[in-house]
Amino acid sequence: MAHQHDHDHEPERGHHHDHTDMDWAEMGHMLESSAELFASLYERALGWLAKEVTEPGLIVDAGSGPGVVACLFAETFPGARIVAVDGSEPLLERARARAERQGVADRFSTLAGQLPHVLGELEYPADLLWASRSLHHLGDQRAALAAFAARLAPGGTLALMEGGLPARFLPRDIGIGRPGLQARIGAVESEWFTRMRTDLPGHVAETEDWPALLAAAGLKHTRTHSFLLDLPAPASDRARAYVVASLSHMRDKLTEGLDAEDLATVDRLLDPDDEASLHRRPDVFVLEAHTVHTAVRPA
């Protein structure tokens, strides 16, 4: 199901968002809540990064959304300055408010503008540049990675969160409709994601071999690690709300790819008055994997 760009990125495609038709300010609360749900996953990913990125002076979150992960960076690296970069000023307002609440505002700043060009406005090169599911919204991913790499200090690390596994939140057989609904929804979402990519300005088709693309950008020492979010049934209120919001967000996109029976099942899952809905079922869970790829600019 669609997940925030941290996120949502970013309700995160499994976490795909179309910047062209989405009101990011309106989705701010959903993006923030989703990223908070995934906080344990991000904390493990940042802990992994901290083992190889020692005492960074400047950390840039490229595509920060409402700043949940950017503030986790401030917590993980207490000596670093953090710059949250995003195309949505309303989301950056949320990021600044979060930094204030968490007591890190003195070393937290924001930069509004479109990636990758806005990175040219950074005053200093980054020791760590984090791009979580923001790269796939840029038409020419290879050129964007080169631009990201150019903003690194010598010895600086680029950390890219792309790929992983789409979310699962229901058993294969849910007792209504035809078994395997979520796999069919995933196939529709994959097709939608391909169309979203193809329709981006300056789209260039690219094999999604992220370590190879990082190496092509002149970076060395590529590493890859995946992190699991495992929230078993029965789901917490927050996890259940994420699942409902994710399927609701996808509902209109499913009309082209699912048959009438599947659409009727989706509508039952979203109907709070239906005993079989996501709002009431005891078997709702969240299981998802995010993958991080890192590489280093030669010193």
UniProtKB/TrEMBL annotation:
Renumbered residue ranges of the record's region Disordered: 1-20
* Pfam families, per database record: Methyltransf_25
Q: Which domain of life is it from?
A: Bacteria
Q: Does the keyword Transferase apply?
A: yes
* GO MF term (any one): methyltransferase activity
- Segments forming a coiled coil: none
Tell me what this protein is called.
Answer: SAM-dependent methyltransferase
Instruction: Tell me the organism's taxonomic lineage.
Output: Bacteria, Bacillati, Actinomycetota, Actinomycetes, Kitasatosporales
